[in-house]
Sequence to fold (1102 residues):
Amino acid sequence: MIIEALIKIAVVLLVVLTAVSYTVLLERWVCAWVQDRIGPNRVGPLGLFQPLADTLKLLLKEDIQPLMAQAWFHWLAPVISITVAFTVLAVVPFGHTLAIGEHIIPLTIASNINIGVLFLVAMTSVGVYGITLAGWSSGSKYSLLGGLRSSAQMISYELTLGLGLLSVIMLSGTLDLNGIIDSQVNGLWNIVRAPIGFLLFLVSSFAETNRQPFDLPEAEPELVGGYHTEYSSMKFALFFLSEYANIITASAVMTVLFLGGWHVPFVDTLGLSPLVMTIVGVVAFTLKVVGFLFMFIWVRWSIPRFRYDQLMNLGWKVLLPLGIANIILTALEKMYLMH
Amino acid sequence: MPTTSKYNKPATRRKLSLWEKLYLFEIVRGLLTTFKHLFRPKFTRQYPEERWDPPASFRGRPVLVLEENGVERCVACGLCSRVCPPLAIEVRASETELLKERYPVVFEINMLRCIFCGFCEEVFPEEAIVMSKDYELAFTDPSQGIYGKDRLLTPKAQLKDRLDFLAKMRN
Amino acid sequence: MPKITIDGKEYEAQAGQTIIQVATDNGIELPHFCWHPALTVAGNCRMCLVEVDKIPKLQIACATVITDGMNVKVNSPAATKGREDVMEFLLINHPLDCPICDEAGQCKLQDYAFDHSRGVSRFVEEKTHKDKRVAFGPNVLFDGERCISCSRCIRFSQEVAEQPVLTFVNRGDHVTINAVPAESFDNNMSMNVIDICPVGALTSRDFRFKARVWDMSFSDSICPGCSRGCNVRVGVRNNEIMRLEPRNNPNVNEYWMCDYGRLSTYHAVNDERLAGPRMKDANSLQQPTDNDSAARRVAQELSKYKKEEVLILGSARMPIEDNFLMLKLAKEKFGKQHIPFIPHISGQDERKLLRADKLPNAMGATLMGLVADGHYQHVHGEKAANATVLELLRSRKIKAVFALAGNSLADAQLLEAFENVEFFATCSSNDNVTSRRADVVFSIAQWAERDGVFVNFEGWAQQLRPAVSTKYYMRGRDQMHMSRLDRFGSPYDKWARSNKRDAREAWRFVQLVAKELGSMSDHAQHWKYQHTEEVFDEIAATNPEFRGMSYEALGDMGMPVASNKNAIVQPKYEEVSQTSTMRVESVGSVIL
Fold:
């Protein structure tokens, strides 16, 4: 069991880290294309080695610690951020099950957690500590403001996130992520069953990952770099990594919750062997995640940043009532349409 | 109570329709706009491979004109140095047996200072110093930014475009 | 006293004066090329045309003697038009090659072309071509095309230089100036014609094309070439002296200076300078050191010897402040009554400017209490012996020497005699025989890098002012004139950084040595001078010859010392002085 888990951890870490680097590359490409440019194409064929070059550059940079910084917390903050970002991945099912001979391996690191959704919500809430701590410990006004904005934003949008999530839980009747997928495999995808819930969750995910149009904690024109203004070298890279890891996580979670995870409709009817089915599942999951990633990037280069009051208005006056209404709607749906 | 005057009257806003107020659909419209750009032809010039040939009116690095007989046109009058707003040019003159009497012993342009204003070219009636098309100015050391006579002198043939342009503009 | 009216204002005048003199005395500038206050009136440039009541035609102000009640109009339409026409005529054959002309920036023709001309020429024909680069003499070159035939140089050669070899040749628009065949304009005042030439026709072979006028900063100072102490203006570019030009001081040099002073004195400031203090190590090789350890070494070495074995040498090349403190040191620490300086007499006194005594401050040093070598009484034991420095050294009575400055060992005999000296410390600005022989040498500022006072042979105390900046004299801070480059450049510019020498006034090193010596006795409190001016103030307070003087009072023109009561301080005009010989003679002395 342990060896199996370790192997899974290693594989997932490797894949996700690579994915993070290439998400950055994708971001730069999409950014360029939207602006009618070409984008990075110098390092390696088509610029595919650009992430390597970036990593090398960041590793070679000088690690600067500001004079007024709280040394220990300044060091701790990126560690918290990156840890949380990767821990969430423990409960995400990447595929159905892999059968090697008699042995059946579920394609989730912690497959036996039956409250995956709770774990997910809990861990993402911890993520804000990394950012807040970074803002406070840097000893810089810009960082502090970034940190403050971050905590306010997280608290506001976590409510909506939870409400969006609640509709899924109500429909599936379980907190187990595999269970949620199963309920979609057997019925309809949740995006169809709870479209408003999906919308709420999607918007809140943007806010929770500090992505445009909700990237106020690191709004460059106002706050230089926000909470990571005073970070350099690998410590900065950790924030960078965790930010993109969070995007991947959010994409994966949305895939699981609303797009049926690894499920591909009508594939069961083809009568493929279980191994092929698993591979198809993993590929389908990956494609869905990439689709969400593209969405994240696409939105970033299309929509301008909110003003702070607009952000709060949207969170409390629009999304929250909508979320509560959605619960009632979902309940009615559950009562009258299903069964 | 703030008074309303010509200068601080509140901005007038267009009334938004319900459709626009919903915002969501407007976002989709915006997303579609950017999506279309993904497939547009790109403007990027692949610089070291594709180079730009500037038009004759381009103001690049100032250079000294070298006549066909191998003598620079410059008579070291120092007017370019006098007119240069960032004090980038240093001229030191000496006497020569030629008809023009004086020539520059030292003629240095500090390209770290040059602002490409073209005053040096404009001030001189004989077009001894002109703006070339050279825009590739990168140094690995500040001392390389100081261009002496050896790097400034450029044969007249290479500057034909600019000299013709100046002759045209003068008339 | 006759009174005349110029442009509606009444002025008092003296009988016999010309209109231009009255105007200039009262601060009205009439444009003129050929008129020069120190030269006879030629009246051939016609630039100073004015309208005089009851005279039908315009009159030239330089040759029209005033009468009582004369009414002169300078700015009347007729006079203005007359001057404009004269300018147009003068510019007909002028090549307008200002960009390559040395005079550009200080050219009368250029200035008047702005102020008194229409700005356009109706002359479309080809200009005349004349000889260019004609050598009048070893130092003066002539450009015939630029010449406007004002005849100032001709009159100068006849009246001031008294070597009448320049003359007009040819007629009409072919007129040009040349030296008489087989003669060369080679007197020692020849280069003054370059200064008085109102255009760029006469150029200096030494300065030709070295710098543009607007690139230089000009500071007023005193020429150190001889005991005349001509007032000069020092032209500096990139912290290097480009040229000297005379400054009018009617009491000393009028408008002139000699070619010797102009050509020979500035090289010592520009070239072959010491990089800093140097000291001989155990192997008798000079090594760079710092001022404090050099001073400590000097103090240690000097206190090793008996007082009569030490010789303190002053220098008449140095301003009085340095000599004053050197004598103070000799009196306080070594019990001397006076100290010698080595005079430098060469050649003959020239009729007008150059003196045989080539030391600029021999009089000042004497007034400070120094004595010229030969009159020096060296106290040895009980008896005082009258001996020259050379004899003293040869007799091996002197073991240690501390000299103020100057290349005192340029004399071969003296150099040889110095082999007898065990310890030799000196101040020097240049790398020369003396500085190489010295055991300790302090790097001192040259005359153009410091404040100080020279007293010329007639007893005129005149002030040196810094023109070249050192590490300690900054242009911005020390009120030195700043050219455009200095004002707008940054501290990282070549012209702001280069050649800033580690050189200070010699008295600072005397003071350092005195302090080091004082730490052994109890005299340290006297030696607290911060600036040269403080030393001078003490001189003015203690020496009756300098009573009432200060740097401010000395100003540009200097003051006579008390024993020189005959001298009169006269007001200064640019180019004009009431006392200069004004000879209104017939215009016919000049062929035109």
